[in-house]
Amino acid sequence: MRGQNALAAVLVAPLLLLLAAAFLVPLGTTLLTAVADRELADTLPRTHHALAAWDGEALPGEEAFAAVADELGVALEERRLGPLAQRMNFAAGGQRALLLRTARAADGLTAPYAVSLPALDPRWGERDTWLRLRDATGPVTPLYLLRALDLDQAPGGAVTRMGEEDRLFLTLFLRTLGVAVIVTLLATLLAAPVAFLLASLPPRWAGLGLLAVLVPFWSSILVRTTAWFVLLQREGPVNATLVALGLTEAPVQLIGTRIAVIVAMLHVLLPFAILPAYAAMKGIDRALIRAAASLGGSPVQVALRVYLPLAFPGIAAGGFIVFLLAVGFYITPALLGGPRDQLVASFIALFINREVNWGMAAALSVLLMGFAACAIAAARLLLPAALKGRLSP
Amino acid sequence: MSAAWAWRVAIGALALLVLAFLLAPMAAIIPLSVAPTEVMRFPPEGFSLRWYEEIFTSGRWLLAARNSLVVAVATTVVATTLGTLAALGLTLGRFRGKAVLIALFSLPIVTPSIVTAASVFLAFSLAGLSGTLAGLVLAHTVVAVPFVLIAVLAALKGFDMTLLRAAAASGAPPHVAFRRVVVPLIAPGILTGAVFAFATSFDEFIITLFIAGPAQYTLPRQIYASVREFLSPAICAASVMLFLCSTVLLALTSWARRRQ
Q1: Is A15's CB within 8 Å of B205's CB?
Q2: Using CB atoms and an 8 Å cut-off, which of residues 119-138 of chain A contact chain B?
Q3: From CA A355, how far away is CA A358, in angstroms rounded?
Q4: Which value does ipTM take for this structure?
Q5: CATH number at residue A196
Q6: Do A209 and A111 fall into the same domain?
Q7: What is the per-residue pLDDT across B53-107, written as a single tens digit (0 to 9) for each?
Q8: Between residues 52 and 111 of chain A, which touch chain B (CB distance below 8 Å)?
């Protein structure tokens, strides 16, 4: 038995290593990146040291002023100032300009720096400027997570709400939740009849119907989204049909609307709802249905009190998978939605590809992960039976 | 009884509508891909294969197809090997925490794909794996391997362990028993897993978007770039080709299932 377990360990180990290297370590990296605050320590080590000792009451001592004046100039010369400038500017607008201006003028500054720095830019004479620098001494900061929740950090660390016009992410999370819930409800509602039909058809026809579900299920999400992009064009078939049916007089703009996003997401996700529901309904013992009917249950009673409860685990598992997938959707909103239809995923992509703000990308990822974890926990609590071994294709 | 009948008809009609909805996009895109004109009007007038000719002669599309194939094949080999070995280990082992391990291995399926992609991007950028073929294959393997594991575990459930003892009693060393007894019997499960792995990698988009360098543009990424650039029927032609690939893969899995 011992030898068998040793063999088992050897067999499982390679996959475990791979999972650790290419999945668990990256997830950990994201968690760390969401709170890491290394820029000041890396770029201006002496300033970092001086500020760590500062009590934050009056202005810091000459030592800190001298360190800033000296290190900023060197960092600019060695082209290392970018990350810190971005970090500070993210905390409060205008900081990049202040740092760059000071770095460029650093050579001409003379001691005592506690006098010459404020003379160069009065902001160096303000305690808030120094408090902001001290907030960046790390090694961790709540800044990115706070921002991802539309909260801000006042100099010194107090948490405040973002200004009305700068709030973005709570709406974004609510929108993501809303779209995911709508798609999940629609998918579940539409999947049940299909699953019922497939489960009650004779095998030959059921096979054909199942093919109609499996073919889209197997084709690429991108291909299907692209197909919808073509279909929903102004001159596309959907608009042609709408006009022919007299529902609209002229073609309507469909691309860039919430409707387009939801229709295409529904199309992509429906098979995930249909297949588990079908598996559950297929497994229902027909004798139970006949028994219920022969005991005097009306068809509606039999459907609602016998059939549906038996099929429920499959339907619920399907809905759960649809929700989990919908929450992380990127391609469909990116191609078919307007700026106001983008979900959390689009902003993660934006922060990675365009803004190069890894802290925000990581913070949004962490919150989305939390979101998914809550959904999984809720599902486990509400439908324990439904999830047993059903997270498989 | 007639009320129940009416209900059945209504449910059946709704179900047929949903099935039509599922098939409609592909049904519409096939005629558009053979349209002779650049303007995609429906229904198209005439017939031409010029868009297929365009994708089959364009360097960008061919390179993307080659990249997709290379990455998907490499992913399939790694994922199928590691997944099959791990499934064997999980079946053979008599230790606690097996369920935990299986849940751990399935984690990439329930993690939102954007989170996986962002995490892989951050970690691989720091490790210098971003923009490399090895990095891309590694990342694809992580999301593909749970499917292999699940398929092979299912196949092993029906495997009679006394066969292994019989093989040992007949003097077969473990690796021979594995090759000549285990593999042939669970081959359909392995094949199903392999096809799933291939399809997962072939369709994967978001991780590729984040970590692939320009030299690793895959087909989904090429389609995405083209749609954003300029929508031409060539994209429909490419979509139809990809769609045919998926259909072949689907046929493979149902063939494997019948053999199981």
Answers
A1: no
A2: none
A3: 8
A4: 0.87
A5: 1.10.3720.10
A6: no
A7: 888 888 888 999 999 999 999 999 999 999 999 999 998 888 788 888 888 998 8
A8: none
